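pasting for ref
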Amino acid sequence: MSPAQRLRQRLDQSPVLVAPGVIDPLTAQLAVNAGFEALYLTGAGIAYSRLGMPDVGLTTMTEVTEVIARVADKVDVPLIADGDTGFGNAITVQRTIRFFERAGAAAIQIEDQTFPKRCGHLRGKDVVPAAEMVGKIKAAVDARKNGLLIIARTDAGAVEGFERAFERAAVYAEAGADIIFVEAPRTREEIAAVPRALGRRVPLMTNMVEGGRTPMTPVKDLEAMGYNLVVFSAGVVRAMAHSARRFYDALKADGTSDAVREDMYSFDELAEIVGTTDLLESGLRYDGGGGA
């Protein structure tokens, strides 16, 4: 099966699918080693790590496509890719679909924000007319060749109110979206209201952001509410940034990294994770050093 087919099949099964955020092949490999069945390529994480900039629409479609290709080359689990607003109008969305699909994505998330977009947990967002987003969804459906799943995200809750967000979500599902994502509910009651309002016409996704506008909610509770997919989008970047700062502080203060050594992989441990030994042995087979 294609990555998209595997993802679609898994969304129909229990328990709820949890997809942690990844930003590159290394974090993807670590997540797979931890036992996760799907991954979420976070747009915010790409902006943070590749640009050192906030998630305000600065990354380009080709930059994200490059990361998709590198991650898909490293791991063999379905990859859900953050496509922001589709990086333009409906025609641009179709180009984005073709690029993401060829690069190896199993699903693309497209949101109904205006450009330049903002992280879903920042204030000051605005949304395009629902009809414009419907056109993007239909364009995406028409452009895909290998069943790439279309995730329609609405940020209307923070702009027009959650009742209007539910109306938009229903319209997006009718337009052909495979998964619906109502971004940034502010209370547990609002989180629970999404499945109650939308039912089970299509799988539902939610996003847990440490310190964001949505209260952190256990995965089991989200499953009981009716969600099919839970992503922890950019948590890995916050964890990495915190660890990196501790490393640099210790090195600056002590002139050695001994104080944080127990929180680090050793040279050999990291080499094992990235497959150094296997790769070198494979090379020997091709250069005549490993026999027939």
